[in-house]
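Usage

Read records sequentially. Each one opens with the input sequence:
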Amino acid sequence: MFSAILRCQGTPFWFLEAKMMSHHGPWTLLTLLYHILQASLIVIVFPELPNVDSLISCVMPVAVNFSAQALRQRTCLKAMAADTIKHFYMCINEKNLKKLGGYISEDCYIKDCSFFIPFNGKKEVMHFFDLFMRSMGQNVKVIIEHVCEGDDFTAGVEWHLEWKQTEVPFTRGCSFYECFEEGEKLVIKKALIVIESPIKPWGGCW
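and closes with the structure output:
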């Protein structure tokens, strides 16, 4: 049962090291558990160790289970980064400023390359998006073309604006977002917005 659990989690390396560990004593077991739990330190008191192999068989499945749960939670949050950005744009298209505020952190920092001064803090960011949504009217929508996820809850988005399902010229852009955990959800902490320039120098010369 012990070896089957380890292989089920896709970690044959740990199984092999555990089999070798019976010749090295309990401190090797503590080191192995430390690495499996990924920096979650375990302190175990051993009054006596008549059989290290039996101890490994009892403790190791529990450690691997904890590690698997942490990994699943981390993977779920990483998947939420793209979902967070998609929901964020849905709020913009729905002109729902209150709901949009739930995806903005208190210390949010947004740099829009169309402006000289960035927007710093939730109040400034919300004011910016309030004006942006008002300028869109009811028929203009932000259309997401691609969403790419990176490390540490980051995501990049390629988008454009449409008016009644017709693309508006010179409104293509890319935005890069950095999110962080706030409770059980992700919120936007930092963003860089780059919009297509209406000026096309040397058009047709290349």
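Summary fields computed downstream for this record:
- The helical segments are 2-8, 12-20, 26-36, 52-94, 97-101, 122-136.
- The first strand starts at residue 104 and ends at 112.
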